[in-house]
Amino acid sequence: MSSSNQTVPAPSSGVGERLRAAREQAGLSVADVAGRLRMQVRVVEALEAENWSRLGAQVFVRGQLRSYLRLLGLPEVLADNVPDATLAQTPALTPRTYTPPMQRMLDKAMGRAVYVVITALIVVPVWVATRTHVGSVDDVTASLGLANDPAAPQPDARPQGPTPVTASLAGPSKRTPAARADETPVVETPAASELTLRFNGDSWMEINGRDGRQIEHALVRAGQERRFESGEVGRVVLGNAGAVDVLRGGDVQDLSGFQRASVARFTVSSDGALAPISE
């Protein structure tokens, strides 16, 4: 019984039989060949059965066939005897599902509608909450009766009657008299025996009292000033003495007689007079 749907087997080229015979003569199994060629067992079996349709495209079939022939020491030109008609044809790709154009348009419309609904659900509550907050601010502003609010009633600027006077039991407030323009500010004049040190540059100083105790020993920056009462200071040592002005009762004293190099050493008497330190 013949049928048009039956597949006519492709004529054998004989290469499969030669492969099988050469493999058996070499004492190799199908699994041994598959392991050496790094192929699957079914590929080796398909090559020996000349079932090219199981092996894929033509270039792969001939490449695998040449590798098998090379392994068994057979001529590789036998791979060229495989007829092209027996090689596997690339099957045509046909879609399994079909979507009508109207269905695709409906799906797109539904997607956009869902997007609009989700956006509305997010934006509308935010807008309502913001609108309510703005409205409450307007109501409070109107209730305060601000001057720049045109809706708020403006008070009448004219007096409606005599202004009541409330008596206070508190005494009269104390007012500080304003300074007269012709008054001259009082400038504190230092005592005649007061010792003042004005530092025009960075320097160091060592101040001892009349009893020998140390009053101050420090590094002083430019622009600072030190004042000592009469009879408080007994001995003074100044570093960088050229940058220090020593004043007695407001008068600058000459330190040239007490200075050696940049250090000045002198004593202060009870009346404020300066004298060199005796060695």
The total of beta strands comes to 10
Helix segment tally? 5
Low-confidence stretches are 1-12, 140-147, 165-169
Distance between the termini: 148 Å
Mean pLDDT: 75
Residue share in helices? Answer: 25-40%
Computed CA radius of gyration, to the nearest angstrom: 59 Å
Shape: elongated
The amount of beta strand, in percent, is: 15-25%
Classify the secondary structure makeup into a structural class: alpha+beta
Q: How would a crystallographer describe the biggest sheet?
A: 6 strands, antiparallel
SSE topology string: HHHHHEEEEEEEEEE
Plain-language structure description:
This protein is an alpha+beta fold. Among the domains are: 15-86, 434 Repressor (Amino-terminal Domain), CATH 1.10.260; 195-276, no CATH class. It has helices at residues 15-25, 30-37, 41-48, 58-72, 101-144, and strands at residues 195-199, 203-209, 214-220, 225-228, 233-239, 244-248, 251-252, 259-260, 263-268, 274-276. Mean pLDDT is 75; it is low at 1-12, 140-147 and 165-169.
Fold blueprint:
Elements lengths: L14 H11 L4 H8 L3 H8 L9 H15 L28 H44 L50 E5 L3 E7 L4 E7 L4 E4 L4 E7 L4 E5 L2 E2 L6 E2 L2 E6 L5 E3 L3
Antiparallel strand pairs: 1-4, 1-6, 2-3, 2-5, 5-9, 6-7, 8-9, 9-10
Keyphrases for this structure?
279 residues; alpha+beta; 434 Repressor (Amino-terminal Domain); 6-stranded antiparallel beta sheet; 4-stranded antiparallel beta sheet; 10 strands; elongated
